[in-house]
Amino acid sequence: MEPGARRGRPRSEAADARIGEAALALLLDRGYDRFSVDEVAVRAGVAKTTLYRRWPTKDHLVVAVVARLQDEVPVVYRGDVRADLTRYLNAIVDGLHRMRLAGRPEGSGDRSAGLVAEVAAAAARHADIGAAVHELFTRRNALVLRLLEEAKEKGELRPDVRPDVVFDQLAGALYYRLLITGQPLDPPYVDLLVESVLGGASA
């Protein structure tokens, strides 16, 4: 760096944490339509320009909140691929329900996909949002694919099984139910789904 040049101000981890907590709380409380970047700034005690530099639109910040929700879910291979996948998918279902009910009282009877559908629509409409969503899921899915690879290495899955296809069947079924059919997502369904998919993949 040239003499006299100044580095940009380093990001504050404390501010990042406040922003993340404020954005998540507001989104779950208000839902997508009433979510406001400006109000997140007020709640987090930071300048609006701080948020807009990193998340230029509401959709960008919503994707960051979704990433925060997903990162709360651990992905660990503990030696029993059925149990590990069942545990993981049930945690994903819990997260999807939180997103679906964002801004709506539980028990309202509204079975629409809510925030999940809004994120999917924004990703389809805007290339930069789509790229952010793609990056988020690529990063998270890599952890599950590694879990399935470990299960193959331990002999739980057939050597010719493709982890990406197995996970497509599992995750695709959850999102299809949520976004298209509106059928229940619950532990019995997850148990049946895992058993059905792994039934053709097990060693």
Question: How is this structure best described in words?
Answer:
The structure is a single chain. This protein is mainly α. The protein has 9 helices and no strands. The longest helix is centred in the C-terminal third of the chain and has 27 residues, at 127-153.
Helicity range: 55-70%
Largest sheet: none
The rounded Rg comes to 20 Å
What string, H for helix and E for strand, traces the elements in order?
Answer: HHHHHHHHH
Question: What is the count of helical runs?
Answer: 9
Low-pLDDT segments, ≥5 res: 1-9
- The SS-based structural class is mainly alpha
Distance between the termini: 57 Å
Task: Find the count of extended strands (DSSP E, 2+ residues).
Answer: 0
Overall shape: globular
List key phrases describing it.
mainly alpha; 9 helices; 67% helix; disordered N terminus
Indicate the topology.
Elements: H1 13-30, H2 37-44, H3 48-54, H4 58-71, H5 81-100, H6 115-125, H7 127-153, H8 163-181, H9 187-199
Helix pairs in contact: 1-2, 1-4, 2-3, 4-7, 5-9, 6-7, 7-8, 8-9
